[in-house]
Amino acid sequence: MKREKIADVLSNGQVGNDVLVKGWVRSFRANRFIAINDGSTIKNIQAVVDFENFDETILKRITTASAIAVKGKIVESQGAGQAIEIEVVDVEILGDANPEEVQKTVMQPRKHGLEFLREQAHLRFRTNTFGAVFRIRHAVAYAIHKFFNDQGFYYLHTPIVTGSDAEGAGEMFRVTNLDPVNPPMLDGEVDYSQDFFGKPVNLTVSGQLEAELGALALGQVYTFGPTFRAENSNTSRHLAEFWMIEPEVAFNDLKDNMDLTEDFLKYIAQYVLDNCADDLQFLHDREVKEDSQKPTAERNEMNLIDRLKFVVENEFKRLTYTEAIEVLKRSKPYKKKKFQYDVEWGIDLQSEHERYLVEKEFKCPVILTDYPAEIKAFYMRQNDDGKTVAAMDVLFPGIGEIVGGSQREERLDVLKSKMADFDIPEEELWWYLDTRKFGTVPHAGFGLGFERMIMFVTGMTNIRDVIPFPRTPQNAEF
Ligand code: ATP
Ligand code: MN
Description:
Helix content: 25-40%
CATH superfamily of the largest domain: Bira Bifunctional Protein, Domain 2
Strand content: 15-25%
Bound molecules: adenosine-5'-triphosphate, manganese (II) ion
Number of domains: 2
Number of helices: 16
Structural class: alpha+beta
Number of strands: 18
Low-confidence stretches: none
Mean pLDDT: 94
CATH architecture of the largest domain: 2-Layer Sandwich
CATH topology of the largest domain: BirA Bifunctional Protein, domain 2
CATH class of the largest domain: Alpha Beta
């Protein structure tokens, strides 16, 4: 007999049919009702054993977390909460779970704080919350590929080990196989000419520069890969290893770039609404329950499902950085000196400012454009005012910056003088500058932090809880 997935049995199972399911025991009540989960859905299937006719040594081994195979007949359920259940004919124990250890961890759901679970590698995956998060994470990854594929983009694999340290997106991790204790030295410094690649190399912080080369030949490309930033910022929105999606499109200007971003983010939100209903509902209810225990001021103004619908149904507010500074200067918290950081044209907006704009002033996703050149990367296109660049940041409620992008500087002379301003040697990026020498065209792109998007669609408030194995300062245990 072939094993059926619990998701399939629950949605298509015919009463009267024989069925074989395998999974992990979530609970075993009254020596009679086994709740089994196999990861195919957040829902458990209920298997009912007629304990009087069962070998007691087998029944004893049906403990929470143990793995079992259950053969039986699909029947209409007598109890509330499920339409069908399995009338068990045969149970096979596939893997025992030591009841004492289970008692210490698995059986104390109240202790399953998200922090505690981060230290329980295997158990974390077995919980409803993380099951839902990781199923949704998968669905979003798939939706991203589908979105781009449907629009004729090519998925470009940019390198993870890079030789250019001029990308300027953040602190980098050095990759070397030189002897860490006694590296070869030359003039008092480590001699990287003897290293594997004959030069210092790092883990990538962004695939953008390489993606630009792809876009300027293939037209429209996107990357979707891991990126690494050795930033020592222990926040709820930063990881040392995270995944980024970076589309890059030839002939697009800033307006096209904003339109693409907005369509893309809406598509993802709609995809989750359409395809992840059970998991989304679970996370929604979980949040409602958590909120009910918080003071009113800390509760979400809109619940999870409504937040997704809101993103799909409403246009993002678009305004320039300069306009945003004016809005902030007119704001109540500014006048009452409630902002911790000052507001002045030229500052890098702090998260308190971004949150004010998104959550208080506009109450919707916001796209800020045309930032001062000094606070943005060298490759962003210089505007005619000479002071600002064609940059855009997308700010989301509860998350802050979710996307950063720009129209790129396609003019070789302007790009070179920008690099000089930023102290970036031309020799480092000769391969990048070449694109501006041979048929350069306007082009634009952006980077979406995958985990920030997963936070948004799951309602999780710590970025560590939306990635299977978080990497943060002082933390890479498993
Ligand atoms: P932030 O100001 O939040 O640190 P950033 O300006 O460094 O972001 P970019 O370099 O523009 O971000 O990267 C593009 C996107 O990647 C960001 O909009 C964000 O969604 C995501 N991102 C950046 N840094 C991290 C990180 N350390 N962990 C997770 N996601 C990140
Ligand atoms: Mn950063």
